[in-house]
Amino acid sequence: MIKLKLGPRTILYPMPAVIIGAEVEGKPNFMTVAWCSIASHKPPAVAMAIKQERYTLKGIRETHCFSVNVPSSDMAKVVDFCGIYSGKDRDKSKLFTIKPGDNPQIPLIDECPVNLECTTIHTLDLKSHCLVIGEITQTHVKQDCMKGKKIDPRCVDPLIYATSSETYHRLGEVVAKAYEVGKVP
Ligand SMILES: Cc1cc2nc3c(=O)[nH]c(=O)nc-3n(C[C@H](O)[C@H](O)[C@H](O)COP(=O)(O)O)c2cc1C
Predict the structure, then answer these.
(1) Closest ligand 1 atom to the C-alpha of 48?
(2) How far apart are the first and last CA of the chain?
(3) CA angle, corner 178, sides to 177 and 181, nearest 5?
(4) Order of strands across the sheet with 27-33?
(5) Is the distance from CB of 91 to CB of 82 less than 8 angstroms?
(6) Global model pTM greater than 0.90
(7) How far is the CA of 165 from the centre of ligand 1 (A)?
(8) Which CATH number fits domain 15-169: 2.30.110.10, 3.20.20.190, 3.30.310.180, 1.10.357.20?
(9) Which of 7, 71, 78, 145 is exposed most, by the fewest CB atoms within 10 A?
């Protein structure tokens, strides 16, 4: 395989396109984040890289809590909007039906099939970005997307972001069952 060296770049596939919700100065605000991942199981936690100047980060610093909302692929337009315009200049509080979480200070987007309520447990300043680690305190999943005790990824239909090409995608086909296909080398 012939490879080209691109130097140090933030290339990793795939990335989720999620919408982070937080109250800023008492009003809900939402921003799109692709640099978001699960960070630990006990406690259940997420980690996300937020640029220092984001308005949403101001709210997370104020309230120490936020939501991670997983949009479906048909929400690409509003996801992009939340990733283009800042709450500093635009009111993004009326874009969605907002439901309060178990923690009433956490705004949840009703249109998103999955919502995580998070409480900030660590922040780490990494020059351009702040790494925010949040403990997941509650998980909300659209009832129709539950197949027994499991979540049906086809029903959630998450929006995927591809870096470099700057394009949104859907999940592709299932290629194998995890923890099974590799049992026999
Ligand atoms: C697809 C996509 C992914 C993004 N991912 C991030 C990210 O991971 N971290 C970040 O700080 N900004 C990210 N942004 C940019 C912010 O969403 C954008 O600056 C937004 O306007 C910030 O809103 P706010 O100032 O109201 O918080 C992304 C934008 C798009 C379109």
Answers:
(1) 8
(2) 23
(3) 65
(4) 27-33, 18-24, 65-70, 114-126, 129-141, 45-51, 36-40
(5) no
(6) yes
(7) 16
(8) 2.30.110.10
(9) 7
Q: Would you say 146 and 140 are in contact if contact means Cβ atoms under 8 Å apart?
A: no
- Best probe residue, ligand 1, of 31, 35, 69 (max atoms within 8 Å of C-beta): 31
Tokens of 35: 């640099």
Look up tokens 């592709």; give the residue.
172
Distance of alpha carbon 41 from alpha carbon 128, whole angstroms = 27
Rounded CA-CA distance 79/95 in Å is 10
Give distance in angstroms: CA of 100 to centre of ligand 1.
Answer: 22
Q: How far is CA 78 from CA 11, 75, 126, in A?
A: 24, 6, 28
Q: Extract the tokens encoding 92.
A: 């993004």
Ligand 1 centroid vs 3 CA: distance in angstroms?
A: 30
Block means of pLDDT (10 residues each) for the chain, 185 residues, are: 96 95 98 98 98 98 98 98 98 97 97 98 97 98 97 98 96 97 94
Give Cα separations from 5 to 11, 80, 163 (angstroms). 12, 30, 17
Q: Report the residue count for the chain.
A: 185
pLDDT at 185: 86
